[in-house]
Write a structure and sequence with these properties.
The complex is a heterodimer. Chain A is built from 13 helices and no strands. By secondary structure, chain A is mostly helical. Chain A is globular, with a radius of gyration of 23 Å. The two termini of chain A are about 30 Å apart. By secondary structure, chain B is mostly helical. Chain B folds into two domains: about 50 residues, no CATH class; about 210 residues, MetI-like fold (Orthogonal Bundle), CATH 1.10.3720. Helices cover about 70% and strands about 0% of the residues of chain B. A two-stranded antiparallel ribbon of chain B has the order 1-2. In chain B, strand 1 and strand 2 form a beta hairpin. In chain B, helix 1 packs across helix 13, helix 4 packs across helix 10 and helix 8 packs antiparallel against helix 9. The longest helix of chain B has about 30 residues. The two termini of chain B are about 15 Å apart. Classes of the chains: A mainly alpha, B mainly alpha. Chains A and B meet through helix 1, helix 3, helix 4, helix 5 and helix 6 of A and helix 1, helix 4, helix 5, helix 6 and helix 7 of B.
Chain lengths: ~280, ~280
């Protein structure tokens, strides 16, 4: 507990300190100058258009990924719950695979599959629809990353929702059926309200993870082409890595990311705790 | 809710079966493709239309002999092992405190710990990098162990807390009556009983540290590189060595998959930080 508090608080304080300086990679610490809030002024005054672009696509990605995965996951979970068959444990086992696969390696595999010239996905689309898509081009790269994310985390949502559906009591359903409710009514007036806590939890986990996304995007596009897929974490990485080494500015951006994540997660946690 | 009813309409059943099969196929496809690619030679990888290519193990040979992939594996194993041991030791004790002691701000503290999970790795990696540079720890396994412990510890606390709360408290009360101290109770009653849960938690910790990429990529350069960062090695200027990369991928993913399937029962619990007891 103390170690953890130490590790997280010390690093945050350190981050704040660094964000107030103009420290660059490779400098001795003595050389860094205290520049006050200049780094932040630069971010918010619009002198750094890349930053706002990153914030925008990060938030867009978060919303899209969370919504699509939640809806798809919910549908698949209901499909699984609606029928009994012998191979169900196998299906559940298959669902675990994308979650357990090392994300960076999975992303690398997708990169091969999405390749415009010799990727298997274009091979399939070409044979079926005579369609050739340059997946990792400027226009499509964002959607490609979204597809990979959906592939990786829809099973995650499915597993959670499925567990929730399984543990529901039978009585409300029986009385609803007696009252003559149709399937849609049962879904919207019984299933979803009863699973609200679980749904909030799923949204929380997915939204924050989507906001933090790094591995997949880094391996697939490294933020490119240009800055088409430069999510906030990738933007921080680009500022801080060896070529730029602007650690001070990267730290300021990291603090903004931290603030966004903290606000969103606090809102959702509070909402989730309220539900009984 | 268990709907044990069998569908009456056979058409609906067949449709559902096909749909589930399709979903499974889509989920499984990248994994199968990875195995397929790892067994092909360079030319066949670039012609995906050709389904039946001759199988060769040349990629595995190159990876093991030329790229010294086992050095990466050694680092990964060391880091994962020590992270797991430390998080479990400290985390279980903390979890016991959260489960059995009552104090005013307990839930707030617990949620504060949970909030560590939402800490973006990118936001903490810079201070870690600088501190690592300050203490001359960059590119060592120790630094990775420290980092991974920070995000595995909250996980352990939440998982173990759930497992401990599942135990009937009467057992511990009986032990107190018989004159056990707190610590003895923890050691002799609680820990043996939560052992299955502990093993599951340990496996999740291992998977987490095995798959971690951001810290490993940022904080290591030569000596302490772990398996996930090895993908960067294959992005050479002369093009990506897909076959070798896929071979590495298969080797890296198999142990994780084996572990994951072995804790399938606790999977949902592990994925949701112990908050859903599926």
């Amino acid at each position: 507990m103390v170690t953890m508090a130490f590790l997280s608080i010390v690093s945050t304080v350190f981050l704040v300190l660094i964000s107030l300086t103009n420290y660059q990679l490779g400098w001795k610490f003595g050389r860094a100058k205290f520049v006050g809030i200049k780094n932040f002024v630069r971010l918010f005054s619009g002198a750094d258009p890349d930053f706002w672009h990153s914030v925008w696509i990060s938030l867009l990605f978060m919303v899209l990924a969370t919504c699509i995965e939640l809806i798809l996951g919910f549908l698949i979970a209901m499909l699984l719950n609606s029928s009994e068959f012998k191979l169900k444990p196998l299906v559940i086992g298959i669902m675990i695979i994308p979650l357990a696969m090392t994300p960076s390696i999975a992303a690398q595999m997708w990169k091969l599959m999405l390749n415009a010239e010799y990727g298997v996905i274009n091979e399939i689309t070409q044979k079926l629809f005579n369609l050739k898509i340059i997946w990792l081009s400027k226009d499509m790269a964002f959607w490609s990353i979204l597809i990979v994310d959906i592939w990786q985390f829809t099973p995650f949502v499915t597993l959670i929702i499925y567990a929730g559906l399984r543990s529901m009591p039978v009585d409300p359903y029986e009385s609803a059926e007696m009252d003559g409710a149709n399937k849609l009514q049962i879904l919207f007036f019984i299933t979803i309200p009863m699973m609200r806590k679980l749904i909030y939890l799923t949204i929380l986990l997915r939204a924050i993870d989507a906001l933090k996304l790094f591995d997949t995007a880094f391996v697939l596009t490294q933020g490119g082409p240009g800055n088409a897929t430069e999510f906030l974490s990738l933007h921080i990485f680009r500022l801080a890595n060896a070529q730029n080494g602007l650690i001070g500015r990267a730290a300021a951006t990291a603090l903004v990311l931290l603030a966004i994540v903290t606000i969103i997660s606090n809102l959702l946690i509070r909402q989730q705790r309220k539900e009984v | 809710m268990k709907t044990g009813r069998r569908q009456k309409n056979p058409l609906v059943r067949i449709f559902k079966g096909c749909l589930i099969f399709l979903i499974c196929f889509i989920i499984l496809f990248p994994f199968l493709w990875m195995i397929l690619v790892s067994l092909r030679n360079r030319v066949d990888i670039l012609t995906p239309g050709k389904i039946f290519a001759p199988i060769s193990f040349i990629n595995y040979q190159t990876v093991i002999k030329e790229n010294q992939i086992f050095a990466y594996f050694k680092n990964s194993v060391i880091v994962a092992f020590f992270t797991t041991v430390i998080s479990l030791l400290l985390g279980s004790v903390a979890a016991y405190g959260f489960a059995r002691y009552n104090w005013k701000k307990r839930e707030d503290r617990a949620f504060w710990i949970l909030s560590q999970r939402f800490l973006p790795a990118m936001a903490v990696v810079i201070p870690y990098f600088l501190m690592g540079a300050l203490f001359k720890l960059l590119d060592t396994q120790l630094l990775l162990v420290i980092c991974y412990t920070t995000f595995n510890m909250p996980f352990t606390i939440w998982m173990m807390r759930g497992f401990i709360e599942d135990l009937p408290i009467e057992l511990e009360e009986a032990a107190f009556v018989d004159g056990c101290t707190r610590f003895q109770t923890l050691r002799k009653i609680v820990l043996p009983l939560v052992l299955p849960g502990m093993v599951a938690t340990a496996i999740f910790c291992m998977i987490n540290s095995w798959n971690e990429f951001v810290f490993a990529n940022f904080l290591t350069s030569i000596n302490a590189k772990t398996v996930p960062t090895s993908v960067m090695m294959y992005l050479s200027i002369s093009g990506v060595k897909w076959g070798e990369m896929a071979a590495t991928g298969v080797m890296a993913v198999l142990p994780v998959l084996f572990f994951a399937i072995s804790v399938q029962k606790y999977m949902i619990r592990g994925l949701t930080f112990g908050s859903v007891k599926g």
